[in-house]
Specification:
about 290 residues; alpha+beta; eight-stranded mixed beta barrel; globular
Length: about 290
């Protein structure tokens, strides 16, 4: 057994302890899928990533992303955090402020702005596509929402690598005060193949953030995810699809994680092609060696 470089990061965090933890194994080319899944289950974090040499010559690196229970083709906070990790380790160099990540969802570009703890990395999420839901799924969704007052946008199941139920609530207060029915959310996501339910509400004018977001993934062993890039990207994609960005504009901030003791800050941009970019700062919390 050999030792491997290992990092634990805090992603979408303006300082350590405010974002979403991520475990990163930097030297994983001889680990098989079962071993990666077992380690991701053991860390008990929402995601663990494994860095590999790229297969595509245009990629800066390759990554595999695991929750405690399954592999994902894409996730936002693991993509942003892994890019931070490979830059810190010198495994890749940004060219004109850009990296290319190879993952299960294909080749995804990343933008790198600044350096050090204030550096912001953004990833272009796979384009979100709405999936048709039948009446039984919508009934399960109503049960999961537990009578929350809703916003104008219709709920949707969005596929942008993982699949997310995306629901606009009436305002930020409806998001902040939601007491999730985790059993009902588990039934909903299990019946529809979704990784979780994401709710959002618009903030009052003058707030430091434009949206408040919460994401629940109990079927994956994550009752509430602290800060979630792919869910924020799915929300942005659905708003754009419905011409509902409105006063948000094409670039705005989302707040997520306060209900679980964090203060995640997600920068969201919808580009001219309609693609959603999610980004933020990452803090390195633990540097070490892995024996597994």
């Amino acid at each position: 057994m050999r030792r491997r470089d290992f990092l634990q990061l805090d992603v979408f965090a303006h300082r350590p302890g405010t974002g979403n933890p991520l475990a990163v194994v930097l030297d994983a080319q001889d680990l098989d899928t079962a071993t990666m899944q077992a380690f991701a289950n053991w860390t008990n974090l929402s995601e663990t990533t494994f860095v590999l040499p790229p297969r595509d010559p245009s990629a800066s690196y390759r990554v595999r992303i695991f929750t405690p229970r399954q592999e994902l083709p894409f996730a936002g906070h693991p993509s942003v955090g892994t890019a931070h990790a490979v830059l810190e380790a010198g495994l890749a160099q940004a060219r004109d402020g850009r990296l290319v990540q190879e993952c299960g969802a294909g080749l995804l570009p990343l933008q790198v702005q600044g350096d050090g703890p204030a550096r912001r990395i953004s990833v272009r999420a796979p384009r979100g596509q709405a999936i048709a839901a039948h009446a039984g799924h919508l009934a399960a969704l109503e049960a999961a929402l537990a009578g929350r007052a809703r916003g104008a946008l219709l709920p949707a199941l969005i596929d942008n690598g993982p699949q997310w139920w995306v629901v606009e609530l009436a305002d930020e207060a409806q998001v902040r005060t939601m007491a999730p029915d985790l059993a009902a959310i588990t039934l909903l996501t299990g019946a529809t193949g979704a990784v979780g339910l994401a709710v959002f509400g618009r903030s009052a004018p003058g707030s430091a953030h434009a949206l408040a977001v919460r994401a629940f993934c109990p079927a994956d062993g994550i009752p509430e995810d602290p800060v979630t890039g792919s869910a924020n990207a799915a929300i942005a994609a659905w708003l754009h699809h419905n011409d509902a960005l409105g006063a948000l504009g094409r670039e705005f901030m989302a707040s997520q994680g306060r209900e679980v003791g964090r203060d995640g800050q997600v920068h969201i941009r919808v580009d001219a092609d309609g693609d959603a970019w999610v980004g933020g700062s990452t803090q390195t919390v633990i540097r070490g060696a892995l024996d597994w």
